[in-house]
Write a structure and sequence with these properties.
Blueprint: H1 30-33, E1 37-38, E2 45-46, E3 51-58, E4 63-65, E5 68-81, E6 87-91, E7 97-99, E8 103-110, E9 118-132, E10 139-154, E11 162-163, E12 169-172, E13 179-185, E14 192-197, E15 203-209, E16 216-222, E17 229-237, E18 240-248
């Protein structure tokens, strides 16, 4: 990830646009990590497997440079260029705008087919609005900054993802009528997420989590409100994925 810093301030921020709001939760651990944008790299996508990745953004606070106050009013994602067909992004705030000193998130998701196979460079353009000065009238200014992600869409057997053993991910009952239990065992990685998709690729459940403190953890999901059909449960643990299919009656 390349980051261009504002000339006069600690900088960076960003999130997605295009849609008005998204079901995502910012990762507050970026405060401890000192990052402006997390993660620095995103997992590759796999053909015919629904993709879902949350990006978390930290908007800088006000600061002083040589005794002059730099007030970060807000920042807004202007555009992400280079996303392949079949994928898109949504912000958790209208207009993809956040106030200074806050955090936000964006959901990158989609479902690619074999025509999408390849490597894509996605450019993230952010417009930041700042005011300079200790007392009014302030000098208002704005600036565009950019960063980039390498986003690859690959065949399932291309060997980029190591498919972890099924004992790490269990789902039951299968078939399911109402509540589905997802059992996770021996998760040793710090950045993980689990998603449930219906047959059309719609995300019906999503959760990010850090390394559990116990060997086995479970999630109970109410599928009674969703239509009958085949559902896909995808567990991502850093560079590995586990996939289970479940039929809803």
């Amino acid at each position: 990830m390349k980051k261009l810093l504002l000339i006069l301030t600690l900088f960076f921020l960003s999130s997605q646009i295009n849609f008005v709001s998204a079901q995502c939760t910012p990762d507050t651990s970026i405060y401890a990590a000192g990052s402006y944008l997390f993660p620095s790299k995103i997992p590759f996508a796999t053909v015919n497997i629904p993709y879902s990745q949350v990006l978390t953004f930290k908007i800088p606070l006000d600061s002083f440079i040589s005794g002059i106050k730099i007030h970060v009013d807000s920042a807004q994602l202007y555009k992400i260029y280079g996303i392949p067909s079949g994928y898109g992004y949504q912000c958790n705030k209208p207009n993809c705008a956040w106030n200074g000193g806050t955090i936000g998130c964006a959901l990158l998701s989609g479902l690619g087919d074999s025509t999408m196979i390849g490597s894509y460079t996605m450019y993230v353009y952010v417009e930041t609005f700042i005011k300079i000065g200790n007392n009014p009238p302030y000098t208002s200014t704005q600036r565009f900054d950019s960063s980039s992600y390498t986003f690859k869409v690959l065949r399932y057997l291309d060997g980029v993802f190591e498919v972890s053993p099924y004992q790490q991910l269990k789902v039951y009952p299968n078939p399911v009528n109402d509540y589905l239990t997802i059992e996770l065992n021996d998760i040793q990685t710090n950045h993980n997420n689990i998603n449930v998709f219906d047959a059309t690729g719609r995300n019906v459940f999503s959760k990010e989590f850090s390394k559990p403190t116990i060997y086995t953890t479970t999630e109970r999901i109410d599928l009674s409100v969703f239509p009958k059909g085949l559902y896909t449960v995808v567990l991502k643990t850093d560079g590995k994925i586990s996939i289970r299919k479940v039929l809803k009656n």
